[in-house]
Specification:
heterodimer; A: 155 residues; mainly alpha; 6 helices; B: 294 residues; 3-stranded antiparallel β-sheet
Chain lengths: 155, 294
């Protein structure tokens, strides 16, 4: 019995130790890089979605794939902002960590809007797809408005 | 009366008056038109406080400028604190000539130099719509300005130097879309109030209109919206511009925030696709120019 307890205690300690170690391995700089990579990926899928949806390119069969990618990547958003990743080469504003409940709510709004867009794409209704895309855009824009420092692009 | 388009303005006035006499209030179509024009004129973004749940049109937003901080006034139909006592001609005068009912001259933080081009019937439709919104009792907050502009005499002098009211006149050589775009961009939408550089007296530099503003609201750099063959709007297609004005997506798939995100939600995103196309048509046709940033 005692042996088992000792064994379990050691196992627990080791597990706690490694998980702590694993978390310590992500530096703020890497967290920022990863966050920006995911955001860029989201941009790419959004841009592709609009090019298809407005008829600029004839890639209709891939519309759903881009929206599914938006859903998968968007689900990561809350985890992209670990504590300490607000300083350095980032446009993320301190407000994100100052009002976590509101930030989480904004992320959920984005997630819900993406789910609605997925449903609209499944229905195939063009007007519904465009309306849902606009709502999702509102969610993106709303979050950027409050939580991202705006840099003038192109200079 | 205003030179050019005065017959139309009088006709519009008469029609509005007749509707008013017949029903005691502006008709639904007239109100819908007023609501649309109020969105196109972007009144709500400046005239609503940034605090959560602040009443729309009741003022209180701080506009930080090199001359001090302006607090936007209440434009709801409340009589003691809003514009509920203003007559129709007083409203038109305030919006297009920058002179209040009490005869005081407005600071150009209020974009009347742009609104001056608005037709009288559009200004009246906006007034009718504002008068249909809930009256909110919210006293105006005094501006906090540098000593040398604190007197309204400064605003009077400024108007003498930099302001000549002139209503929009369509260019016959240009397309209907281009002309509609010019009216929306230069007057109703007052894009140049942020996107144009200003001189040391705070007047928009008409020779560099829409070429970008290194010292925009709240000290932000505002990009050029004239094609300059290098970046930004330059390589955007008309469709990309329309998509941007509709939902805020930049061609690379990013979404704007900051001030423009709000303008898209409240103003350009509420326009008809035809009006967005007109704006894009006008902007794409502008000769290239870019104001250097800091």
């Amino acid at each position: 019995m005692r042996r088992i307890v000792t064994f379990l205690s050691i196992a627990l300690l080791v597990a706690a130790g490694t998980s702590k170690l694993a978390r310590a391995e992500t530096s703020p700089a890497n967290a920022i890089k990863y966050r920006q990579a995911i955001m860029k990926a989201i941009n790419g899928h959004f841009s592709a979605f609009f090019l298809i949806n407005t008829g600029a390119v004839d890639q209709g069969p891939y519309l759903a794939a881009h929206v599914d990618a938006l859903a998968a990547l968007g689900a990561e958003i809350p985890a992209l902002f670990p504590a300490g990743s607000g300083t350095g080469k980032t446009e993320a504003l301190a407000k994100i960590w100052e009002e976590p409940a509101r930030f989480a709510q904004a992320a959920t709004a984005g997630k819900d809007a993406t789910a609605k867009l997925q449903a609209a794409v499944k229905s195939g209704d063009k007007a519904e797809i465009s309306a849902a895309a606009k709502s999702l855009g509102e969610a993106c824009k709303g979050c950027h408005d409050r939580y991202r420092k705006e840099e003038t692009k192109g200079r | 009366m205003i030179p050019g388009g005065s017959t139309r303005a009088v006709a519009g006035w008469l029609a509005a008056t007749l509707v008013f006499l017949a029903t005691g209030s502006p008709g639904d179509t007239e109100l819908a038109r007023g609501q649309y024009l109020t969105a196109a004129a972007g009144c709500v973004t400046c005239h609503t406080d940034t605090a959560d749940g602040a009443p729309r049109f009741a003022g209180g937003r701080a506009l930080v400028t090199p001359f001090g901080t302006f607090y936007t006034p209440n434009i709801t139909p409340d009589r003691p604190t809003g514009i509920g006592t203003w007559t129709a001609p007083q409203f038109v005068q305030a919006v297009r000539s920058g002179v209040g009912p009490d005869g005081r001259h407005y600071y150009p933080a209020f974009p009347y130099p742009s609104y001056a081009g608005m037709t009288e019937e559009d200004a009246l439709a906006i007034r009718n719509y504002l008068y249909s919104t809930p009256a909110v009792n919210r006293p105006n907050r005094s501006h906090e300005l540098a000593w040398y502009v604190r007197t309204r005499l400064a605003a009077w002098g400024w108007q003498k130097l930099f302001f000549t009211p002139a209503v929009f006149v369509a260019s016959p050589g240009q397309s209907v879309d281009w002309n509609r775009g010019a009216y929306l961009v230069r007057h109703l939408g007052h894009c140049g109030e942020c996107h144009s550089p200003r001189n040391q007296f705070g007047a928009v530099r008409t020779d560099r209109e829409l070429a970008g503003n290194p010292a925009g609201p709240d000290g932000k750099e505002i990009p050029s919206i004239r094609s300059d063959g290098d970046a930004d709007v330059a390589d955007w297609t008309t469709e990309e511009l329309e998509t941007f004005l509709d939902g805020g997506m930049l061609p690379d798939g990013d979404f704007v925030g900051a001030g423009m995100g709000e303008i898209i939600s409240e103003e350009t995103g509420r326009l008809t696709p035809a009006d967005r196309r007109a704006i894009a048509t006008y902007l794409k046709a502008l000769p290239p120019m870019r104001q250097p940033m800091r």
